[in-house]
UniProtKB/TrEMBL annotation:
Transmembrane segments: none
A Pfam family of this chain: TPR_16
Protein's name in the database: Tight adherence protein D
SUPFAM superfamilies: TPR-like
Signal peptide: 1-28
Keyword annotations from UniProtKB, A to Z: Signal
Amino acid sequence: MYSNLTKKILLSTLIVFITACSSIQTNQAPLTVEDIASKEKLYESTRNYSGLVSIYREVLKGNDDPSIRYKLSDSYYKKGDSRSALLYVAPLLDHPQFIEKATILKVKALIQLREYQQAIESATALIARYPNNVEAYNSRGIAYAQVGKLNDAQYDFAKSRELFIDDVVAINNLAMLQIINGDYKNAVQLLLPQYLNGEKEQRLLHNLVFALVKSGKTDYALDIIKKEHLNTSADDLVNALKKTQKVSKTISVTK
């Protein structure tokens, strides 16, 4: 009898708890346009992609706005959840106003998932429809580089630069191909002028230091490591890079 009474009390408590939670959720005031804008600005400035996901999901519950859906998918991609990005961007792939940018996001997500062949196929189809899409060439070049098709990657990176992709992205990608090929001297020739002109993007710096070390210019590499605070022990980093046989393919994706 005591056991039955205890069960009834616990069940009643659980029902009350669930009802209370439900009331809190249903009574929660919907986000205003001002709320969304202010939170969006804050989360974007702090790269709080989880916060952005929460905002956009809340908005989409009341209105499946394609622009918000795209932002949700992009936020998932930027937080590293490309499976979710692909799920939510899928309805936009046939949307007349979003097909181009939605497909680019799909390609980037596939690359993040290391589904390189699918990324190449999607990018190629997009280029056939939009032959001047700079991000399509850059993204396809990344996928080609990852599967070892370096000549194809070289063409796509050069084409994206011809179409005025950001110089830092283009030069870093072209230099990365030189590094993969073991042509460290040419990599330095591409990256060093950018650094001397004040460019300090992290991937560019890391690739430059690696190429300098591998081409025997350790003094210059040490100077950059110390000046840019790339490591607490510059000598240890240089020694480690000397022993490195392969470098990770740090290819730049436009945001």
